[in-house]
Design a protein that fits this description.
There is one protein chain. The protein is an alpha+beta fold. The protein has 3 domains: 1-38, no CATH class; 44-125, no CATH class; 126-182, no CATH class. Helix content is 45%, strand content 20%. It contains 6 helices and 5 strands; from the N terminus they run E-E-H-H-H-H-E-E-H-E-H. A 3-stranded antiparallel β-sheet has the order 3-4-5. A two-stranded antiparallel ribbon has the order 1-2. The longest helix is centred in the middle third of the chain and has 28 residues, at 84-111. The relative contact order is 0.06.
Length: 188
């Protein structure tokens, strides 16, 4: 008769006795079959409804998955800020990044199964928005915001996800004072 058992030591009148409980392998197998497909959730909340405890554990696993996604998929790391407003801003940006990641993941499930948010971000990561700054003869600056044109595989991915890039923004003109503050010095 093989099996697993629990042991407990007990002192009786100066002598120590050993009690052993042996469970047969077949009994253990039956117990395992009864628990198959069920979770055993440890909790110190004995008065709670079991379904409420189950929901709490599901929420806990979702929060843990969110933090793993922030670290791995989005590459966010803890940053130690000294100013409370910066801490709040960092949390806000991290939350927005996670919300966008979840939205993208749901869109991928529906429109492009098999793709991951990380793969899509890597593929579309080469699209850039930049400002083309040209000086004018009257010392102002012509600023033309432009994004790079997508490669054919990027265009296919955007089409598959039902996404379109916005039209190129119109150019704008900056006065010399504004240009001195916001533009890099160009040597020609």
């Amino acid at each position: 008769m093989g099996g697993r058992g629990g042991e407990s030591g007990r002192r009786t009148g100066g002598r120590r006795s050993l009690l052993a409980h042996v469970t047969s392998a077949s009994t253990l197998g039956k117990q395992a079959q009864l628990r198959d497909g069920h979770y055993l959730l440890p909790s110190n909340l004995v008065s709670e409804n079991p379904s409420v405890l189950g929901e709490c554990y599901i929420q806990l696993s979702q929060v843990e998955a969110a933090f793993r996604a922030l670290k791995s998929e989005l590459g966010l790391r803890p940053i130690y800020h000294q100013v409370e407003k910066r801490v709040e801003a960092h949390l806000f940006v991290a939350f927005l990044a996670y919300a966008l990641s979840v939205t993208l993941k749901q869109r991928l499930v529906a429109l492009a199964p098999g793709l991951t948010p990380r793969a899509v971000l890597e593929k579309l990561g080469t699209l850039q928005m930049l400002d083309v700054c040209l000086p004018t003869t009257d010392r102002r600056w012509l600023i033309m915001p432009r994004y790079t044109q997508p490669e054919p595989d990027q265009s296919l991915l955007l089409h598959q996800l039902n996404l379109t890039l916005p039209s190129q923004p119109p150019p704008r003109i900056k006065a010399p004072q504004e240009a001195a503050q916001g533009l890099p010095r160009l040597k020609m």
